[in-house]
Amino acid sequence: MNNHEIDFKLYGDDMQFVEVELDPGETVVAEAGGLMMMEENIEMETIFGDGSEQRSGMVGKLFSAGKRVLTGESLFMTAFTNQGTDQKRVSFASPYPGKIIPMDLSEWNGKIICQKDAFLAAAKGVSVGIELQRKLGTGFFGGEGFIMQKLEGDGMAFVHAGGTIHRKELQPGETLRLDTGCLVALTQEVQYDIEFVKGVKTALFGGEGLFFVTLKGPGTVWVQSLPFSRLASRVFAAMPQNGGSKGEGSMARGLFDMLNGDRN
After folding, report:
1. pLDDT-derived band of residue 207, with 50, 70 and 90 as boundaries?
2. For tag attachment on the chain, is the N or C end more exposed, with fewer CB atoms within 10 Å?
3. For residue 237, with 0-12 CB atoms within 10 Å meaning exposed, 13-18 middle and 19 or more buried, which class applies?
4. Is the pTM of this model over 0.85?
């Protein structure tokens, strides 16, 4: 094992959090802002890059951090290490309603590809990199951009997605079409491409967008029922224009203002 071995427990239903149990000296890394709570003797440290130990030296750290910038993430992550003499716990919360998916990378041939904002936390040693799509159409119209995240290693990683999560096993040659925002993750064997919606009327007036994600088996895919982009668009649509009235729309605007720190 190259990664730290960690135990965990999931709590909640629609707004989950994951509690990670660390033995003395064990470390878990997480995106900045994901911490919910931690017990004493757990030490926080801001690290450059993803915390994996596959590369050493300043050049390796710069390369690791650069990959994170390309996926839209911060240059830094936070490492939580148990400096005590007995087991301690640290918890990480979901950023919006949905599910946390625990993934033991050793069970998936050491690699999972996921949407760029899905990663929540992982055992130290898991590499959080980028997955370049070979076809330009996938990059420009894929909903999640030209670059997706890849999680590599043999330890535990935690991925978050919105709404209900459905795991589907694709048989060899089996094809599945998805809304571009509903793809959460896939195994490396799955072929991934973008397909234009046929029919001008369907594309322009169908309300489902202009492109599908096309997945071809064999392999495993994870699908979410509520992409954050869809949730955000409904909240924005409920807001009143030019001030509006004190109804449902104004309540949505108030919620949006609170989420953005505007309480005036």
Report:
1. very low
2. C
3. exposed
4. no
